[in-house]
């Protein structure tokens, strides 16, 4: 078994035991100072503020946000025991460093922060699938390049890929070859930037025009627009390394791996604040909800703190499941 997920299994078992503590024991728990890594991207920053608000208002913790990024944060948690929490860690590219920290007992995997994990793949708008159900699969896409006309190359279909410099640009180009979309008549379009790609999707959706594109979540784009991930594409770890290489000579059909999005906790925090940790280990947000929160944040030009407060006010049916009733009432009163 992968060491990372072996550690996760042991940790989640211990989480159940902590969560089963009587409310009187939880109330007696001394939370103290808690540091939470605030990553630079919107979903992670929002989740950090959600944790901070509930820990401060519900558990009386002295909760503090600190700047973070994946590898430096994990390294600091391992070597210094701080920060106490990292709310959104994407482990696919960091299996070794996370697995080592879990094996050494300095870090534990508290929960899968996003219920459905991270999303990454190829999408088409729902209105196109409603009209042409075959477009829900890669075989249907390949058979219908004319439904995605390239305005610059008449007779061709257009696929919107990642901007130059993103790893997914290489992956997409290899997958286009692997599925024979180049031979079927598709061109690969570089949108120039992340905002350019998001803007292309927004423009097409608001005008109900065709678009076949790469995208990822959780993001405001997937919260605002109903996009369907193209099916019929399975991840094969044995051929994935070639797909990610610019020098791949014979890419095989594949797709992006599932990403289990994790909250990591430093072991000293787990040991000193079991009631607070029980909450952290219960936190898991449906992707559809966090996408909608991010869409609201973008439309309102709100901060991450504002997005967190919007979530807490708008989705009590989600977060009150993470905490005892008395803690939920304290948070609601603070809001």
UniProtKB/TrEMBL annotation:
Pfam families: OpuAC. GO terms for cellular component: ATP-binding cassette (ABC) transporter complex. InterPro entries: ABC_Gly_betaine_transp_sub-bd. Residues 33-313 form the ABC-type glycine betaine transport system substrate-binding domain. Residues 1-19 form the signal peptide. One of its GO terms (molecular function) is transmembrane transporter activity. Keywords: Signal. It comes from the Bacteria. This is Glycine betaine/proline transport system substrate-binding protein.
């Amino acid at each position: 078994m992968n060491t990372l997920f072996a550690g996760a299994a042991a940790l989640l078992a211990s989480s159940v035991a902590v969560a089963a503590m009587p409310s009187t024991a939880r109330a007696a728990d001394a939370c103290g100072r808690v540091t939470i890594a605030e990553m630079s991207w919107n979903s992670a920053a929002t989740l950090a503020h959600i944790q901070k608000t509930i820990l401060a208002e519900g558990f009386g913790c002295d909760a503090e946000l600190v700047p973070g990024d994946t590898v430096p944060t994990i390294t600091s948690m391992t070597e210094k025991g701080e920060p106490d929490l990292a709310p959104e860690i994407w482990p696919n590219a960091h299996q070794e460093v996370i697995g080592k920290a879990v094996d050494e007992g300095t870090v534990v995997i508290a929960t899968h922060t996003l219920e459905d994990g991270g999303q990454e793949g190829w999408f088409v708008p729902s209105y196109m699938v409603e009209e042409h159900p075959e477009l829900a699969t890669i075989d249907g896409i390949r058979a219908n390049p004319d439904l995605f006309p390239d305005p610059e190359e008449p007779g061709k279909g257009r696929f919107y890929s990642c901007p130059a410099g993103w790893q997914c640009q290489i992956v997409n180009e290899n997958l286009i070859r692997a599925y024979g979309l180049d031979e079927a008549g598709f061109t690969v379009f570089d949108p120039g930037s992340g905002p350019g790609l998001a803007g292309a999707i927004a423009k097409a959706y608001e005008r109900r025009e065709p678009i076949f594109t790469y995208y990822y979540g959780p993001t405001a784009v997937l919260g605002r627009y109903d996009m369907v991930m193209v099916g019929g594409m399975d991840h094969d770890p044995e051929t994935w390394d070639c797909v990610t290489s610019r020098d791949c000579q014979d890419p095989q059909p594949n797709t992006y791996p599932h990403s289990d999005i994790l909250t990591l906790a430093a072991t000293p925090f787990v040991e000193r604040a079991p009631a607070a940790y029980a909450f952290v280990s219960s936190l898991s947000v449906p992707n559809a909800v966090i996408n909608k929160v991010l869409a609201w944040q973008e439309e309102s030009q709100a901060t991450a703190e504002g997005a967190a407060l919007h979530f807490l006010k708008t989705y009590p049916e989600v977060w009150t499941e993470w905490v005892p009733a008395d803690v939920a009432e304290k948070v609601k009163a603070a809001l």
